[in-house]
Amino acid sequence: MMTSLAACVGVQEGEEGEEDDVGVVEQAAFVENALTSNALTSNALTSNALTSNALTSNALTSNALTSNALTSSALRDPLARQLLKYVVSCALPSGARFDINIDGVVYAFDGELGLHKRWGDKDGSCDNACKAWVSACVLSRINHLGIATPISMRGNRCELSSDSTERTAYSNREGAYYGNIFASPPNYYACVSPEKTSIERVCGASLDDCALRVVGSCRDACDKPQSDGSYPNCRDRARDSYGKFPSGTISYAGSVTIFLK
Fold first, then answer.
1. Cα(49)–Cα(39) distance, rounded to whole angstroms?
2. Helix, strand or coil for residue 11?
């Protein structure tokens, strides 16, 4: 996925499909990914602090968040603001922005990837597809040390298309990320690329202490990889020894695969 100067065409938002070589320019892999895992688990983020209404038209026009969205008290916490920064960056397109005044200090939140542009429209909302893609995008940008690392973000959306140059430069598949950060309790999942046993960028040295639940190999948790190497429709648990998913397994269409140099 490039931080693209080109329009995302050929696939409408919410449709399944993939656009290879969509007229992108190579500045991509520098999408910021220094979200700390603490921002996901901060005590300041109460169960109703982050909801699908967090980017309603009221928030965009009045510069204040409604009582059932991100609360001003929660946003006094820098970790809460960090999380909102990545939510907005994933959901809204480049050029979209809104400001929030917290105790006399104005904080700006900028769009970047545009995975659900309509969330920022008047009367906009975040449906299930929005929650899935924004969640996957946010989770894929966690960094255990809070240090930005060049990444290639890919998935079954034209906004996440990659060209051959990017695929060559970023050929080291790390894993896939998915879940629902808006649920109560939230669901944070990841799977590891089949040739790997760890995800150090996100989890640190051990998977045991990871902020995400790592369900195993992506080969056992997702559908077969697409032409760009990304895994679609990843699940909250892996296949059993018979190649079947256990009863009650949940599939996430919004699955984002990360590649490193």
1. 12
2. coil
Structure tokens at 51: 């909801």
For 69-117, how does the pLDDT look when each residue is reduced to its tens digit (9 = 90+)? 455 566 777 777 888 888 888 988 889 887 888 888 988 988 899 998 8
Which two structure tokens, joined as six digits, stand for 72? 């001003």
Instruction: Give the type of residue at 221.
Output: A
Which residues does residue 260 pair with via DSSP β-bridges, in sequence order? 172
What does the block give as tokens for 245?
């998913």
Give the side-chain half-sphere CA count within 13 A for 153: 33
Of 128, 110, 106, the residue nearest 120 (C-alpha): 110
What is residue 179's three-state secondary structure?
strand
CB 167 within 8 A of CB 215: no
- Give, as one character, the DSSP assignment of residue 54: T
Q: Whose CA is closest to 129, among 157, 88, 154?
A: 157
Cα distance between residue 137 and residue 154, in whole Å: 10
Which amino acid is present at 95?
G
Half-sphere exposure of 230 (CA within 13 A, CB side): 30
pLDDT tens-digit series, residues 12-55: 344 333 333 333 333 344 576 777 666 665 433 333 334 434 44
* pTM across the whole model: 0.81
* Most confident of the ranges 3-7, 29-33, 85-89, 255-259: 255-259
